[in-house]
């Protein structure tokens, strides 16, 4: 474990991202499991919250030449100043955003990035040298994850399911669980996927308009809706 808990120290609610539920309600949130999921509808601020964690820790990204200099991170930088992390220990890690993955593959940054990598990650990044274009989208994502998630560290993923089929989501669960058998790492993942949420022993925080609460899988809205629909799809399409 790396982060014992997090806390947004301001009561500010005006302006993005302070007007999102995840930021407003992130008060003394315990992160006492190796895997924590943050779930909720679009727009509740899941991504903003985990981006602020990654920014504060200066975690490596898929293309380390990016750093956190994009204009989109300006409000996140401000939020990070109001983010208090109770750290058990410092360590290296990796921050994955689905949009970073798409840009990285599409723009052909695979080889150009090698020249400017931190030596700590140089060997890991070199393993990307396999032609990712020869993989499916999900296979390319999993290939990168297997190369990055090798050492003990803190790993933050933002909606990884956007790059993964249901089968590949199961593969990601397997990769994480196998890694945790060997290393004392920590994963914090924002997701909409009930498949990922079902990872055994994971801690789930559901963000709603009423708060941010640790919630059993069977009580998470995403899970309930998905299960109810799959049990009886026709019930959702009845014509009066």
From TrEMBL:
Q: Name one GO cellular component term.
A: plasma membrane
Picking any one GO biological process from the record gives:
double-strand break repair
Main location (coarse class): membrane
Q: Domain named AAA+ ATPase: which ranges? A: 32-210
SUPFAM superfamilies for the chain: P-loop containing nucleoside triphosphate hydrolases
Q: What's in the keyword line of the UniProt record?
A: ATP-binding, Cell membrane, Ion transport, Iron, Iron transport, Membrane, Nucleotide-binding, Transport
- What's its membrane topology? Peripheral membrane protein
Q: Which InterPro entries match?
A: AAA+_ATPase, ATPase_AAA_core, P-loop_NTPase, Rad50/SbcC_AAA, Siderophore_ABC-ATPase
Which Pfam families does the record cross-reference, listed alphabetically? Answer: AAA_21, AAA_23
The UniProt entry, under Gene3D superfamilies, shows:
P-loop containing nucleotide triphosphate hydrolases
Q: Which domain of life is it from?
A: Bacteria
Look up keyword rRNA processing and say if it applies: no
Question: Carries keyword Iron-sulfur?
Answer: no
Q: Name one GO molecular function term.
A: ATP binding
Q: Where in the cell is it found?
A: Cell membrane
Identification of the protein by name: Hemin importer ATP-binding subunit
Q: Which organism was this protein described from?
A: Capnocytophaga ochracea
